[in-house]
Amino acid sequence: MRVTVLGCGYVGLELGRRLAGDHEVVGVRRSDAGLDAISEAGFEGVRADVTDAASLEAVPDADTLVFAASSGGRDAAAAREVYVEGLRTAIEAFGRRTDSPDRLVYTSSTGVYGDHGGDWVDETTPVEPTTEKTRVLAEAERVAREEAAEHGITGLVARFAGLYGPGRYRLDRYLDGPVTEGYLNMVHRDDAAGAVRLLLEGTGDAATDDTGGVVLVVDDEPISKHALADWLAERCGVPAPAKRTKAERLAEDDLSTAARRRIETEKRCSNELLRGLGYEFEHPTYREGYRAAIEAYRSRR
Predict the structure, then answer these.
(1) Which residues pair with 224 in a beta bridge?
(2) How far is the C-alpha of 264 from the C-alpha of 246, rounded, in Å?
(3) Looking at residue 254, what is its pLDDT?
(4) How far apart are CA 128 and CA 267, in angstroms?
(5) Which of 93, 220, 232, 301 could staple 56 via S-S, CB 3.0–4.6 A?
């Protein structure tokens, strides 16, 4: 299978690394530094920009596409340029080729659900984005499924929970405190890449029919931030951090609008469908996922 990963960042590089032994993989980045990272990961890289159709002509034909490009953490306008317009450009550029792709996996976020007061959500739960950026993500999901279909491409959406793993453990966030209450829905980078591979290879396609091709990519156990902080502190051999309620944090003056909405938005995400597709997690919970980070932390003390 020929796979093109558009946007080889945190998950895309790991995905390409895992696919390279069994498939022909091409990673696409906008910078020379990005190409160097792809080379170090052991697969082919091409310099191109998803917002520039002409540059995509340099990318070889593919059987499957992964759209994992990043807007670089910028504002909603930048997100729209990449996630909506860039995705549309890529679909059109590859879809009009004689040898066009059969499948597209777009990597989205569980942020599209909005607030559910801590209740469980799954692929059938209506999306209710609460910020301009998550509204952009919801629109991009529609493009991935509906506009890809117009070109004969099956569009699937992998909704990632909060990503963590090498380089993104952020132990200081939980050990230094104060930690604000609320649920965490997480998935280790390696499992995010593994789940996308599962979708690329077509395992259990029929199971996604009722969800419109959407699959939640999240581990087995949502956990409260307070509980995670205490667990990490115990394993790291340090005092438990200070805690605060959401009301206490919301009363503080330094909150941005985006931070306020993140605190107010709460849900627990189910991975029942992903498990039903046959995916076996390398890091089914935070306990396995943080093991390497805890060992490294303790070795430095």
Answers:
(1) 183
(2) 8
(3) 84
(4) 12
(5) 93
Cα–Cα dist 68/195, whole Å: 13
Give pLDDT < 70 ranges for the chain. Answer: 73-74, 203-207
Cβ burial, residue 122 (10 Å; 0-12/13-18/19+): middle
d(CA 252, CA 231): 26
Which whole-number Å values give the CA distances from 32 to 10, 65, 153, 203, 237, in the listed order? Answer: 16, 21, 30, 35, 42
Residues in the chain: 301
| Omega of the bond leading into 60 within 30 degrees of 0 (cis) | no
Q: Which residue has the tokens 């390279």?
A: 20
* Gyration radius (Cα) of the chain, Å: 19
- Give the bridge partners for 187, in sequence order: 163
Q: Distance between CA atoms of 163 and 55, rounded to whole angstroms? A: 30
Domains of the chain: 2-166+186-220+268-284 (3.40.50.720)
In angstroms, the CA 134 to CA 129 distance is 5
Query: DSSP letter at 244?
Result: E
pTM exceeding 0.70: yes
